[in-house]
Amino acid sequence: MDNYLEQGRNITTALNELEKFFIEIIALQNLLINKLDTFLDSSTKYKASNYQEICHISNSEYLVSWFNISIAIFYKTKRKLTDDRAYRFINFQFSFSDKSVAIPNQIGRPLIHINSSDMRHYSEWFIKYPIDEILYFDEMPGSFSLEDNAIIWSNYDNGNKFWHYSIDLLKINSHNFQELLINPVYRLLHEEPLQIVPNSALDNALIRYENLESIIK
Question: Are strands 64-75 and 142-147 parallel, antiparallel or unpaired?
Answer without folding.
Answer: unpaired
